[in-house]
Amino acid sequence: MSAPELPLSAPLNVGFDYTRSVGPVLGRFVNALRERRVEGVRGSDGRVHVPPLEYDPVTAEALSEFVPVASEGEIVSWSWIAEPLDGQPLSRPFAWALVKLDGADTSILHAVDAGSPSGIHTGQRVRIRWAEETVGHIRDIAYFVPADGSDTEPTEAPPPVAKREDGAPVSVVITPIHLKYEHSASPEESRYLRGLAEGKLIGQRCPSCEKVYIPPRGACPTDGVPTTDEVELPDTGIVTTFCIVNVPFLGQKIKPPYVAAYILLDGADIAFLHLVLGCDAADVRMGMRVRAAWKPRDEWWTSLENIGHFAPTGEPDAPYESFAHHL
Amino acid sequence: MPDVAVVGFAQAPNVRSTPGTTNGVEMLVPIFAEVFERTGLSKEDIGFWCSGSSDYLAGRAFSFIAAVDAIGAFPPIHESHVEMDAAWALYEAWLKIRMGEVETALVYGFGKSSAGQLRRVLALQMDPYVVAPLWPDSVSVAGIQARLGLEAGLWSEKDLAEVAARSRADAASNPAAQFSGTAEVADLLDAPYFADPLRAHDIAPVTDGAAVLVLASAERAADLVDSPAMITGIEHRVDSPSLGVRDLTRSPSTAAAGRALDLDGVELAELHAPFTHQELILRDALGLGEQVRINPSGGVLTGNPMFSAGLARIGEAASRILDGSARKTLAHATSGPVLQQNLVATLEVLS
Q: Cα(B239)–Cα(A57) distance, rounded to whole angstroms?
């Protein structure tokens, strides 16, 4: 017997622009950064916090007394990153450090371009290396360099952006966030997807309640047990419910109006979403009999996209009572 | 108000990676079955379900919803979720029983840390304005914390290696541990730095895993198992999210949570310390003396399934009561960067 096939997996890359309004305290801070200045805020105990805190860490009172601080200071503690990760301020080995700027009482976390671990120590004087273009964002501080050293060549980092009306202060900061994953389908989903690549529709039956799920699930949502018994389903079924899409949207592949419908295959107990084409949208009905319109075989892969759409068969409609419990 | 006891605990093997999905169903279904068998309960007997997990770990929104399939949620159930370690889901479930709303609760946590790059993903739990946009990784930030203590003379690199060596040796008796074995402190100190001043042995391994724990009111618990583990105290506190404001060599929130409890007579403590130096910070914050056995399970340095590791600490501490090997134990869970949020519980034999 051959070893069981591993579940299907594929890279999943997600990204979005994290867009945030800054408010009065962080707004003041990032707008000062745009002018290559650093401002902290004084807390109830007299300490000057950099980066500024919106609320006092001791009393929780709102803070508003801004204090300019230097762009030079000393290292409080550090660690070394030999192989920088995506998005970090430097793409060559560097130190992460807590830096207490002159005039501040708390420290800011940032990167220090120190060459090697022997080029950095606690208490070392460092100064800000400003970004070539400042926009009103924490990354206007490109990184820190030893105070007595010369500027170093910046390395490429993802561009943060800030929105403002012409001449107006920055009120929104945007940080692009990108994460990479390896996404895995479950063993049951993998059987289903591999079946599609061969033109088969594979569902699975719950051993407890005997309902047939397509796509099969890791566990029966009613009984919580794995759905183990494989069932090959026909490519015919009915429309249980549907909507007519009239609204255009980004990434839309078909020109509206068209019908998105829940298709319940014959023998299945759960419907899935697909397209109904091949007739006027106005003629689609609940209970209408449909059959899969498969794409040419050389376009098949492990995807339900192998079925381009479902089309009416012309058979008599299924009576409402026969599918009412699947709505 | 009813007292609350732990009556069952199970965890999936702590492994470097699983081929399974990020919704944890494959890991959860078997361990749900395990606790049901041990307690004699079925899903129909559970009054409240609560879970801890993270969308960032899974790389998709509302990822915890798919895990509900593992429950078999029909008829509809009473369910909730926290986007942090499931120890805090346990706190919510504990409240439900204390308030008299339910008699039993099942708490679970799961995470597939291996799906993404864990130490980079965890950057996103930090301040989104001035910290997260720099992508400081969780290991580097812990390195900054470790150096503060090293240079202040609070601990030495040898102290840290001793924590690692003891954890590995203790993990030999824990079948769920990711790794175990004997290690000489001198050999550990010969290893290169991973993130100076941290070496690989100072850092909890990337781990996929899941855990489940069953709670019951004291009255109900007595009917379910021979020796329920009474939760005689549970407290949680939080420190400032601003890293530069905190004294990172201490854990005031752990200390405050511990002060609110009666820690006299604690025989063993399961501490959630993903870095060797953090165990020393936590021992100090809780005032645990030499007589208290620390992490007999090996702790998270030998397996750190994100979002269930804290719950598993409570499960391990409870298991020592359930199996009759201890009369009073302590469990600690953490969430957030460098011990930001901390939960402490005491568990005792039902008197």
A: 9
Residue B37's nearest CA partner among B261, B263, B212, B268 is B212
* CB burial of residue B293 (10 Å; 0-12, 13-18, 19+): middle
Q: Are B301 and B163 in contact (CB under 8 A)?
A: yes
Q: What is the per-residue pLDDT across A175-216, written as a single tens digit (0 to 9) for each?
A: 999 999 999 998 889 999 999 999 999 999 999 999 999 999
Confidence label for A136 from pLDDT (cuts 50, 70 and 90): very high
Most A CBs within 10 Å, among B57, B144, B277, to test the A interface: B144
The pairing of strands A125-130 and A141-146 is: antiparallel
Global pTM value: 0.94
pLDDT tens-place string over residues B55-96 = 999 999 999 998 988 898 888 999 999 999 999 999 999 999
Q: Cβ separation of A183 and B124 shorter than 8 Å?
A: no
Handedness of CA B317, B322, B324, B328 (dihedral sign): positive
φ, ψ for residue B56, nearest 5 deg: -65, -35
Q: How many alpha carbons lie under 13 Å from residue A135 in its C-beta half-sphere?
A: 15
User: Chain B contact for A85, CB < 8 A?
Assistant: yes
- Tell me the three-class secondary structure of A148-190, residue by residue: CCCCCCCCCCCCCEEECCCCCCCCEEEEEEEEEEEEECCHHHH
Q: Tell me the three state secondary structure of residue A125.
A: strand
Candidate from A29, A96, A137 with C-beta closest to B136? A96
Instruction: Looking at the complex, report in whole angstroms how far the Cα of residue B325 sits from the nearest Cα belonging to chain A.
Output: 33
What's the distance, Cα to Cα, between the start and end of chain A in Å? 42
Q: Which residues are bridge partners to A291 per DSSP?
A: A236, A311
Cα torsion angle, A49, A52, A56, A58, sign: negative
